[in-house]
Amino acid sequence: MELFANVYGVSFLPVGKIIYYSEIDEDIKKGDLVLAMTEFGLDVGKVEYELHEKRIDDIGYEVKPLVRKLSQEDLEKHNENVKDARLAFWKCREYIKHYNLPMKLLYSKYMFDRSRLLFYFSADGRVDFRELVKELAREFKTRIELRQVGVRDEVKFIGGIGLCGLPTCCSVFLREFNSVTLKDAKKQQLLINPVKISGQCRRLLCCLRYEKPVYDELTENVPEQDEVFEYEGKTCKVVSVNIFTEKVTAISDEGMMVVLPFDYFKTGTVK
After folding, report:
1. What DSSP string runs through 124-166?
2. Coil, strand or helix: which one is 207?
3. What pTM was computed for the model?
4. In this structure, how many other beta carbons lie within 10 angstroms of the beta carbon of residue 206?
5. Can you give the pLDDT at residue 116?
6. pLDDT digits (tens, 9 = 90+) for 51-103
């Protein structure tokens, strides 16, 4: 028996991961700022999805209720936290430069009750930031948390323009990253040129996954290049697969060229 819950979808970082919370007795709409408990404590989030039904198994964790919608007093405190976190960002950058640490600071934020000050950064490897944490703790008189993120998340924080000429998907709407492989590019018969199929993060373009279901459906049961199949009593090896003409070119063990439509592999007949 499937169980469902009525939940709001809330984000706590710019284009951040959606966290689900159960309803409370308040009129909450998309775009509202709300208070909620997170892994770091009481935090301010933005409602991205209004109340809707979702399978509990799809959520995968215990759904907690929101605390409340921000009051005017809460909003004033939140705005002050945002302003102070921005000042802390620049101060932290000064300390990073002072200690000559190989890290790039990306974002900073206070928890709502200022019990913790978070800094997000990227780096090529592990960074010994113990002295930095001590300096920041002395400076801001609160608990300091430094969180290292990957190169794909780095672009999400700083933004940029993609190869298509539009803002990068991760900085606009892409909240979670799916695995992208060269197989996704090959299936679309793209030229495997790292410069052409990589984004600012130096990883394969996220958009290579957008049309994957279409290509998967189109090539279902169709053999891939170098695969072997039987045709009219002959063993044939696939030379190429053209998704645009929907034809498979193969060569038999006797050296004869065979061109078959995708329908042959799906229906067993040649139209």
Report:
1. SS----HHHHHHHHHHH-SEEEEEEE-HHHHHHHH--B-TTSS
2. helix
3. 0.81
4. 19
5. 95
6. 999 888 888 888 999 999 999 999 999 999 999 999 999 999 999 999 999 99
Q: Which residue in 197, 202, 177, 175 sits closest to 187, CA to CA?
A: 197
Q: How many CB atoms lie within 10 A of CB 269?
A: 8
Task: For each of the domains in the chain, give its residue range(s) and CATH number, in order of start.
Answer: 4-69 (no CATH), 75-149 (3.30.300), 154-215 (no CATH), 228-267 (no CATH)
Q: Which residues contact 260 (CB under 8 A, 6 or more apart)?
A: 231, 247, 248, 250, 270
Distance CA 247, CA 266 (A): 12
DSSP label at residue 191: -
Interval 199-257: pLDDT, tens: 888 899 999 998 888 888 888 899 988 899 999 888 999 999 998 899 999 999 888 99
State residue 60's pLDDT score.
86
Decide if 7 contacts 52 (C-beta within 8 A): yes
Which phi-psi region, left, alpha or beta, contains residue 191 (left: φ > 0; alpha: ψ -120 to 50)? Answer: beta
Output the pLDDT for position 92: 96
Distance between CA 211 and CA 200 in Å, rounded?
A: 21
152-181 per-residue burial string, b: 16 or more CB within 10 A, e: under 16: bbbbbbeeeebeeeeebbbbeebeebeebe
